[in-house]
Amino acid sequence: MLVLARKVNESIVIGDDIELVVIDIKGDQVKLGVKAPKHISVHRKEIYEEIQKENIAALNTEFKPDMLKDISDYLGKDKK
Predict the structure, then answer these.
(1) Which residue, among 36, 4, 40, has the nearest Cα to 22 in the 3D structure?
(2) What is this structure's pTM?
(3) How far apart are CA 20 and CA 6, in angstroms?
(4) Which whole number is the average pLDDT over 28-46?
């Protein structure tokens, strides 16, 4: 793990197109700004872990043929 010290308004760069900027420091809380291309998702770690759990649960869901009908109903494919 790389550990860097930064002050307010200073930043670090990851790769060619991701920048983390220290926005504010108050007590034990640090506010960071993230500049990244739209195709790169950025999440707090706890949210990322929840997304991963939901993805795993979805993969473990047993497929039932009527699921396709439910999906097409939701997408409006059955409307005439």
Answers:
(1) 4
(2) 0.65
(3) 10
(4) 96
Residue ranges of alpha helices (H) inside the chain are: 45-59, 66-75
| Rg value, the chain, Cα | 21
Say whether pLDDT at 70 is over 80.
no
Tokens 């790169």, residue located: 40
Q: Strand, helix or coil at 56?
A: helix
Is the CB of residue 24 less than 8 Å from the CB of residue 31? yes
Residue 75 has, within 13 A of its CA and on its CB side, a CA count of 7
Q: Quick one: how far is CA 77 from the chain centroid?
A: 30
**Residue 79 C-alpha from the chain's centroid:** 34
3-state DSSP assignment of residue 18: strand
